[in-house]
């Protein structure tokens, strides 16, 4: 299935998301309803594994600035495509909805990826939980958030206008942890710059896709 305009760039994924054309008549089609911040990773997994029966629609990534809006946006996306697909899978974790997204998915009869947020499932939910008692002063970024740091951190927090607020916001953090999905030296440099701008120590972890890969594999090839 071809992707429609707008093109797959981070600014578009932040503001508009990603849509799909009307599905073909093939049965067995599955629609992934995902956060725009995960589009690059999901499409990479689709290409690598030949999961052509998984279609993708992404909601705007900037919904994370208003997490209370995510459940209703997911519900609307599913309602718009309910007649065309056999199955849906929501590629959001809880993402700050306080359990409301899980409740909405249960109401709609659809599954969602496990975990409290994408930092957890990229790290691996079990590994992230094991670190949680000692890493509560860590601030996390993914590939997407490194590229979109100004759009998701610097400007929404007003630091472009009032940089003096930085220490008030981040004074209780000790380090920035960059969870790298790709081994990209340019992103490593940019992530270090983000840490410097926040006045935090820097740590990079090459997590790859973490639990996202097996979660989508289970959707693509469900066990009877």
Task: Please characterize this protein's 3D structure.
- There is one protein chain.
- With 224 residues, the chain is of the alpha/beta class.
- It contains eleven helices and seven strands.
- Strands 2-1-3-4 form a four-stranded parallel beta sheet, with helices on both faces. Strands 5-6-7 form a three-stranded parallel beta sheet.
- Helix 4 (100-108) links the parallel strand 3 and strand 4 (111-112).
- Helix 3 packs parallel to helix 4 (100-108).
- The protein is globular and about 50 Å long.
- Mean pLDDT is 92; it is low at 1-6.
Quickly count the helices.
Answer: 11
Structural class category = alpha/beta
Q: How many whole angstroms does the radius of gyration measure?
A: 18 Å
Largest sheet: 4 strands, parallel
Share of residues in strands:
15-25%
Please tally the β strands and state the result: 7
Give the N-to-C terminal Cα separation: 26 Å
Estimate percent helicity.
Answer: 40-55%
Report the mean per-residue pLDDT as an integer. 92
Order of strands across the main sheet: 2-1-3-4
Order of helices and strands: HEHEHEHEHHEHHHEHEH
Shape: globular
Contiguous low-pLDDT stretches (5 residues minimum) are 1-6
Q: Looking at the chains present, what oligomeric state does this protein adopt?
A: single chain
């Amino acid at each position: 299935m071809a992707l429609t305009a707008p093109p797959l760039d981070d600014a578009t994924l932040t503001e508009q998301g990603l849509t799909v054309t009307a599905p073909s008549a093939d049965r067995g089609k599955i629609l992934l309803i995902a956060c725009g911040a995960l589009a690059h990773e999901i499409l990479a997994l689709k290409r690598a594994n030949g999961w052509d029966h998984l279609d993708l629609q992404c909601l705007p990534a900037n919904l994370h600035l208003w997490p209370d809006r995510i459940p209703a946006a997911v519900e609307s996306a599913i309602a718009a495509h309910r007649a065309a697909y056999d199955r849906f899978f929501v590629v959001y974790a809880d993402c700050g909805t306080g359990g409301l997204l899980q409740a909405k998915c249960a109401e709609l009869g659809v599954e969602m990826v496990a975990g409290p947020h994408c930092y957890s499932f990229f790290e691996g939910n079990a590994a992230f939980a094991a670190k949680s008692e000692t890493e509560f002063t860590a601030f996390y970024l993914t590939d997407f958030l490194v590229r979109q740091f100004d759009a998701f951190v610097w400007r929404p927090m007003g630091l472009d206008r009032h940089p003096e607020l930085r220490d008030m916001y981040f004074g209780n953090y000790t380090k920035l942890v960059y969870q790298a999905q790709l081994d990209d030296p340019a992103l490593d440099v940019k992530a270090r710059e983000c840490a410097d701008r926040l006045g935090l120590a820097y740590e990079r972890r090459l997590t790859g896709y973490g639990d996202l890969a097996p979660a989508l594999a289970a959707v693509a090839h469900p066990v009877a």
